[in-house]
Every structure is written in structure tokens, then in C-alpha cells.
Amino acid sequence: MTQPAGHHLAELNVGRLLAPTDDPRVAEFMAALDRVNGLGKRMPGFVWMMEGSGEPGTGNTDAKIGGDPQYVSNLTVWESVETLEAFVWNTVHRAFYERRQEWFQVLGKMHFVMWWVPAGHRPTLDEALARLEHLRMHGSSDQAFGWKYLKDAQLWKTHSCAQVAAE
User: Fold this and answer.
1) Residue 72: which pLDDT band, with cuts at 50, 70 and 90?
2) Is the pLDDT of residue 32 over 60?
């Protein structure tokens, strides 16, 4: 699939921390949130990020999913596939992604989804979770998709996690 004219790429990534956000087992991850999110916001092609409480070191961890304080989410919008890929795979974000098993449970189901949004649209967490559920139920389509569905996506092929988790 190629990018529709006048649209940006939205993405949601969810995970369940191995421990509460104030636990030493996830301290290194929590301490890096502001740095990694700040870098993302300065990247060419960054459009928008769902913000948490604004408290230092909390990232978006206060946006709970299903009331579970250990479920955390990241919801962003990017100008294009290439700009999102550059951030995910060509910055310090990659080092934290590669170490995710140190801080996050293996969910055993899709935890990442992308979809096109009209330029200027800011998706809600509920909207994003509905897209993720659509992907889980129906597989990749124009409504919700993973990296594999995008013809312009290339970097994920050498850096992504197992197929079951990040199609």
C-alpha cells in the first residue's frame, strides 16, 4: 500500500511492563522516556504525539489501557513511512526496542498498528485501540496494518521482531 495524498501515518504501540512504573526493574526504561520521546519530536517528519501527564520521566505511561497501570502506549503521527522508519530504526530508539524484553512482557498477539489519517487529524487512544483490534481480527488491510503491508517500508525487514508480534 502506498500513502494516500493528503494523509499522514498514525501508529500505536502498546506493551505491558514487567513491573509498575516506579519499580527498579523498569527504571532504566522509565528514565529514558523523555530523552527518546524528545528525540522523536525533533525528528524530520514528526507530526504529533499523544502526551501523558507531562510529569518528567512518565512519557505516556499514565494513559492506561483497560485500567491496568502496567499497560503503556505510544501513539504518534508521522508525515510518511520513511520518517517513522528513520526514527524507529536509525536512532537511539532502536537500542531500546532491541532491549524491550528486559522491561516488557511478551504479549503473544499484535501490539503495533499503523493506519492513514487525514493531515491534521489527531487520533484518540480509543480510535487507535479499535484499529489494533481490527488488525488482530482481520489482518492487514487499508483500515489497519503492520510494516509488511507498506511497500515503502524497508528497514523493518532487517530490524523487526518476530512475525507474530510485528507483522
Assistant:
1) confident
2) yes
Cβ–Cβ contacts within 10 Å for residue 95, how many? 10
What's the whole-model pTM score?
Answer: 0.86
Amino acid sitting at position 131: R
> What pLDDT, in 10s, does the model give residues 91-134?
999 899 889 999 999 888 889 999 999 999 999 999 999 999 99
Grid coordinates standing for 23?
519499580
CB 80 within 8 A of CB 45: yes
- DSSP characters for 3-63? PPTTEEEEEEEEEEBSS-TTSGGGHHHHHHHHHHHHHHHHSTTEEEE------TT-TTTTS
Tell me which residue has cell 518476530. Answer: 162
Domains of the chain: 7-166 (3.30.70.100)
What residue type is assigned to position 63 of the chain? A
CB 167 within 8 A of CB 109: no
CA 79, 82, 51, 105 torsion: positive or negative? positive
pLDDT band, very low/low/confident/very high, at 43 (cuts 50, 70, 90): very high
The DSSP secondary-structure symbol of 73 reads E
